[in-house]
Specification:
The chain is an alpha+beta fold. Helices cover 31% and strands 23% of the residues. It is built from eight helices and ten strands. Strands 5-6-7-8-9-4-10 form a seven-stranded mixed β-sheet, with helices on both faces. A hairpin with a 2-residue loop joins strand 6 and strand 7. The longest helix has 15 residues.
Length: 234
């Protein structure tokens, strides 16, 4: 692991990450777009509290979802076929981040603080960070955000103010990414919620190889428009 004073050109090799805490690789640096892009394409992400230095992580194993392995429960499938909601993308990016930052049961704080919101909004303005949103009667009730590089989507966080609202957004995201021939969705660490949707753990080495195959050039992107291009959910 290295500290801030020598974290200016590149991150250390992933195998240098600590076992305890799992995946801690580096401390310090900044959240510039260039730094974040370098981190994500290397399999690294930032996670730290507002009063801490920037911690960079690459856990082993890594939780991922291959789009073709998405699991949709019978009850969720029924909800998906209702016409009571609307899916949008990139129409309320900052609102989605702020909603993800809201206090949750059993948590005393959040890692999605103003510095993080500003950093990912900069990526959003470049067309590299995106939000997928569930709306009901004109109200934002659920959604998620993350970073898209090459054919990989790096999921960051999701929120829900209505039953299954975040799951609805996630399913539509996966289906759209599958249509666009994305090969991988990074879910970072294991949760029962993600496992129920088909995500599974792979080794850090395997994850790194996937990134090497799926991420080539990093080009400035466009805002997503799911309303125009959303495939049918069968």
């Amino acid at each position: 692991m290295i500290n801030e004073k020598n974290l200016f050109s590149s991150f250390p090799p992933l195998e240098k990450a600590l076992d305890d805490p799992n995946g801690l690789l580096a401390v310090g640096g900044d959240l510039s777009p260039q730094r974040l892009i370098e981190a994500y394409r290397s399999g690294i992400f930032p996670w730290f509290n507002e009063d801490e230095p920037i911690f960079w992580w690459s856990p082993d194993p890594r939780m991922v979802l291959f789009p073709g392995e998405l699991k949709i429960s019978r009850s969720l499938r029924k909800t998906l076929h209702k016409d009571c909601y609307q899916i949008r993308a990139d129409t309320a990016f900052t609102q989605v981040m702020q909603a993800c930052a809201a206090p949750r049961k059993g948590q005393s704080g959040t890692w999605i603080h103003p510095e993080m919101i500003a950093a990912y909004t900069a990526l959003h303005d470049m067309g590299l960070a995106h939000s997928v949103e569930t709306w009901i009667d004109g109200e934002l009730v659920g959604g998620l955000y993350g970073v898209a590089l090459g054919k990989v989507f790096f999921g960051e966080s999701m929120f829900s103010r209505s039953t299954d609202a975040s799951k609805i957004a996630f399913v539509h995201l996966v289906k759209q990414l599958q249509y666009w021939e994305f090969g991988l969705i990074d879910c970072q660490v294991k949760t029962r919620h993600l496992a129920s949707l088909g995500a599974r753990e792979i080794s850090r080495v395997s994850f790194s190889r996937q990134l090497g195959t799926l991420i080539n050039d990093i080009a400035i992107g466009d805002k997503w428009n799911f309303e125009r291009m959303l495939p049918e959910i069968s």
